[in-house]
Design a protein that fits this description.
Helix content is 34%, strand content 21%. With 364 residues, it is α/β, with parallel strands linked by helices. The chain folds into 2 domains: 76 residues, GMP Synthetase, Chain A, domain 3; 255 residues, Rossmann fold (3-Layer(aba) Sandwich). Strands 8-9-5-10-4-11-12-15 form an 8-stranded mixed beta sheet, with helices on both faces. Strands 1-2-3 form a 3-stranded mixed beta sheet.
């Protein structure tokens, strides 16, 4: 039996690709240490995105690969997570206690944006991240209902300055609905709405969050511009249906974020297919392949494709979105995949962004 060395262990690790970073652990910069004690090998990896449900299987796969090496009797692979802060707009200061802001947006209403935002936040939390969600849809806030927060609930005020977010299902939630009467419409002009959004973002006492998911109102108006100019966003997720009209508006959403230099992390396609609960027949009621075409057109990733399902709607309306109501279901697993891809895309986006040129001053 020959003695194992570090080069052999690294060679094995390079043969396996992280499905979310699309790189092997060494190329992705995840390797933190290799310890070889005779025929025993210990490897330490560190990930920059939340993937708690994936890591045990990933570690086991790498461990088995290392144990197949000649000279290795046993191996141990330990994976830790360290989520760093990212923001697209360098000139905007970061939010206190918030590492990454993810905007969930759509070009038009009725495409399942708020449901996607709620399940994304819950899925990130299940992966081990500390998560908050801000309902920025001032005119039609719905996150309070989706998170099962009773009508009339009001946030506490800390030091006469900060709103304390309401915790539900392990996620910190803040919404304009908590500050107004649910039956009173917000008859406000654009500047008032933008001011309310900024107040909610900057005057909420978030508690050391890895991710803050912002459920945006539909469209490309004042709130979206305010977000781009005042809030340090790490990236945006565009939600659409395969319908041609929805795709047309989704394109405008992608273009808007690009113009304000906020990276689009990818596209989520809702209502992609309807499967009859009686006969199992599949129908593409809103068209087919629209989300994939949109993602391809703009060179971004199709992060998830979800069916038109009455169960998703019922669970969200009941205050327990799918990720919480049926965590082991196929649909919940799609949301978990979405969460991992979003976290990984933020890390990759940072790596892809060009470095700022250095400026040197001399006396010549």
């Amino acid at each position: 039996m020959s003695a194992v060395n570090r080069a052999a262990v690294e060679a094995v690790l390079r043969q396996y690709t992280d499905p979310y970073l699309n790189q092997d652990p060494i190329s992705a910069g995840c390797l933190r240490g290799i310890d070889i004690q005779g025929d025993r090998v210990s490897v330490q990896l560190e990930q920059g995105y939340a993937a708690g449900l994936f890591n045990s299987g990933w570690a086991q796969m790498l461990q088995m690969a290392i144990e197949s090496l000649d000279g290795v009797a046993s191996a141990r692979v330990e994976i830790t997570t360290r989520i760093a802060a990212h923001k697209a707009q360098a000139q905007i200061p970061g939010l206190a206690n918030v590492k990454n802001v993810v905007a969930v947006a759509s070009g038009k209403g009725g495409v399942g944006k708020s449901t996607t935002a709620a399940n994304l936040a819950l899925a990130l939390a299940r992966e081990g991240a500390r998560v908050g969600i801000l309902d920025a849809d001032i005119y039609g806030p719905s996150q309070g209902i989706m998170f099962g927060i009773p009508e009339g609930t009001r946030p506490k005020v800390k030091d006469q300055k900060w709103f304390v977010p309401i915790e539900s299902h392990g996620v910190e939630v803040m919404s304009m609905a908590f500050l107004t009467d649910d039956n009173t419409p917000m008859v406000w002009r654009g500047p008032m709405v933008s001011g309310a959004l900024l107040q909610l973002v900057t005057q909420t006492a978030w508690g050391d969050l890895d991710y803050l998911v912002i459920d945006m109102p539909p469209g490309t108006g004042d709130i979206q511009l305010t977000l781009a100019q005042k809030v340090p966003v790490a990236g945006a997720v565009i939600v659409t249906t395969p319908q041609d009209l929805a795709l047309l508006d989704a394109r405008k959403g992608v273009e808007m974020f690009r113009k304000v230099n906020i990276p689009v992390l990818g596209v989520v396609e809702n209502m992609a297919v309807h499967i009859c609960s009686n006969c199992g027949h599949a129908e593409h009621l809103f068209g087919e392949g629209g989300g994939e075409k949109l993602a391809s057109q703009y060179g971004v990733e199709l992060l998830a494709s979800l069916p038109l399902s009455m169960v998703i709607r019922e669970q969200a309306d009941g205050g327990k979105p799918t990720v919480i109501a049926e965590p082991d279901s196929q649909i919940a697993m799609v949301y978990q995949e979405l969460a991992r891809h979003v976290g990984a895309r933020i890390v990759l986006q940072e790596a892809l962004s060009p470095a700022m040129p250095s400026i040197s001053i001399s006396d010549d």
